[in-house]
Amino acid sequence: MSEATGAAVITRFAPSPTGFLHIGGARTALFNWLFARHHGGQFLLRIEDTDRARSTPEATEAIYAGLRWLGLDWDGEAVSQIARSERHAAVAADMVAAGTAYRCYATKDDIDAARAAERAAGRPPLYRSPWRDPAYPRPNGPYVVRLRAPEQGETVVEDRVQGRVTWKNETLDDLILLRSDGTPTYMLAVVVDDHDMGVTHVIRGDDHLTNAARQSLIYAAMGWPVPVFAHIPLIHGPDGAKLSKRHGALGVEAYRDMGYPAAAMRNYLARLGWSHGDAEVFSTEEAIGWFGLDAIGKSPARFDFKKLENLSGQHLRGMPAETLVAEMRAFAAMRDDLPWSELWEPPLRASATSLAERSKTLPELFEMARFITHPRPVEPDEKAGALLQTVSQGMLHRLTSHLQTATWSAPALEASLRVFAEAEEMKLGKIAQPLRAALTGRTISPSVFEMMDLLGRDETLARLADAASAQPGD
Length: 474
Description:
Layout: E1 10-13, H1 23-38, E2 42-47, H2 57-70, E3 79-80, H3 85-98, E4 101-104, H4 108-120, E5 144-147, E6 154-159, E7 163-168, E8 176-178, H5 186-196, E9 201-205, H6 209-222, E10 228-232, E11 235-236, H7 252-257, H8 262-271, H9 284-290, E12 301-302, H10 305-318, H11 321-333, H12 345-356, H13 362-368, H14 370-373, H15 382-388, H16 393-403, H17 410-423, H18 428-440, H19 448-469
Parallel strand pairs: 1-2, 2-3, 9-10, 11-12
Antiparallel strand pairs: 4-5, 5-8, 6-7
Helix pairs in contact: 1-9, 3-5, 5-6, 8-10, 11-12, 15-18, 16-19, 17-18, 17-19, 18-19
């Protein structure tokens, strides 16, 4: 089967608004989005909100927010499934009229007894309603509408990931299309919505594979074309077990709040089950150009935080300075503990490349940039404070005096500090490390010479004076 039939490609993402947009759902959305964008088609969003007891407006908004943060824009307005209930019921009525569905009046006790009898006979506990027979007497009372599924032969799904999958029809029961209160079931609603929305490719988790067989029967009963199915393996933890919260089964907003750039998350999610040669780090534009269903693997992908962190760091290091500052600005805007000033942006742009060298996430980037974003007096952390205690007040005063006449550029400052270290009969590192602690309050930072250049002479000397005044006299 070809990648696309030549007709316009239309994919959809159809989450249930019963909680956050979890990482597995985000990957499903991404695959649908990439496939549609690769083919110049449409990516649609449908909110499957028929479970009124569990669906909430807050969860719907969380799905929207998660998709927007990931940069997965959908075409047109999002569709509410429950708003289409009348259409679903009308299709069920058409099927009853055509004889491809029927009204079943069985009670729960009837069904339980019939299934118990099947088990006792050593057969699968499928319920076969007597009302399949049009001549069977119809009582007055509540009923459901069931699909009249074929009892012989096979149902085949040519899946683009799983291959040819076959079910014996004797193992597929007459599934319920309409409940006794007239509301549609998931199986009917999904088929009607996908057909009416013109969906050409259904890309979803392989936990829906059996649903594809049942839904194929509804398509056949209505005489509708069956979309291309592609059931992707689920995501497991690094230990191979089903993904749980301890592995990373969190909402995408948790990864946003942890400071992973959206571009890195798209890259990482794309690599969970899909590959393009040996490419590990790539842009979204490259992923769109490369993406195809044939490159999706059959084995479950394994979520690995270390790989995500490594990939995130590579994306940060590859960003232009302006993009890095924009990422920092947006991250600060959603955090109460991260103030932001436009005054910081010029020095941040000037130091962005250096700042990103030791950063894997945006909080780490802020930590590296704290010499810009944290005003005097600089409060040293425990390690920096301990390091400053190892140097004398006199040495800090002599260093301050030496720097008064230094040429203020990173290369010139490095040369000047080498001269000072020689005069003090110390290695350069023994000077640079306490200088770093005095300027940033930390023992890890970008190049100390670049920091001094960015801070300027006055701010650098003032911070050194602060550090010296905090030391006991010689």
